[in-house]
Design brief:
This protein is an alpha+beta fold and 186 residues long. It has seven helices and four strands; from the N terminus they run E-H-E-E-E-H-H-H-H-H-H. The chain has two domains: 78 residues, no CATH class; 93 residues, no CATH class. 39% of the residues lie in helices and 17% in strands. It has a four-stranded mixed sheet with strand order 1-4-3-2. Strand 3 and strand 4 form a beta hairpin. Helix 2 packs across helix 4 and helix 5 packs across helix 6. It is globular, with a radius of gyration of 17 Å. The C terminus is likely disordered.
């Protein structure tokens, strides 16, 4: 799950903000109420906005005492399975002129853009009519604009499409699949 946080990545780390993350009221696997309890943390790396290195932060995990499923709470400044922060990805997607954080990570961001472009046909099938009239397949800028218009900035957009459609802007991951699909895949 992705959760909005009122701090940026550097503040999240400095303030040990992961300790303030509370469990969702309902288990996303079995829908039981008040069954999620603190389980552990895992470490993630993430780019910095004002520096060329990365920072490490903890992602909070919870476990359901009923179904034994786990859920991780990713802060909204991070994209699932991506090193570069949402704000930097969004800066690249908007196009030039690029700020310094985008210029530092241009090679990685180009790979993200290519993955986004390749994912568009699948995304169109999943998002369906939620975007209104679908943009052309070969126009990544129009797709980015349509998604931003329908779902908001990169962090809000990611939270919405992960929670509603179980996808990201870059693909579908096992942890984002509905429970019945996960069960079928073993």
């Amino acid at each position: 799950m992705i959760q909005p946080v009122p701090v940026n990545a550097e503040q999240y780390v400095a303030e040990n903000y992961q300790r303030q993350i509370r469990p969702p009221p309902e288990c996303p696997h079995c829908n039981a109420l008040k069954t999620l309890w603190a389980h552990c943390y895992y470490l993630r790396n993430l780019t910095r906005i004002r520096a060329s290195n990365t920072l490490r932060f903890f992602v909070r995990r919870f476990k359901c005492h009923r179904c034994k499923g786990t859920v991780s709470i990713l802060p909204s400044f991070a994209q699932p399975y991506r090193l570069v922060q949402n704000a930097t990805i969004e800066g690249y997607f908007k196009g030039p002129p690029f700020p310094a954080d985008v210029l530092r990570w241009t090679a990685q961001l180009r790979r993200y853009w290519l993955r986004f472009m390749k994912w568009i046909p699948e995304m169109e099938g999943v998002l369906g009519d939620s975007l209104g009239r679908s943009p052309p397949h070969d126009a990544g800028d129009e797709w980015r604009s349509a998604i931003a218009t329908a779902y908001g900035e990169m962090d809000v957009c990611t939270m919405r499409i992960v929670s509603i459609f179980q996808i990201t802007l870059f693909g579908r991951y096992r942890c984002h699949q509905p429970n019945d699909q996960m069960d079928e895949q073993g």
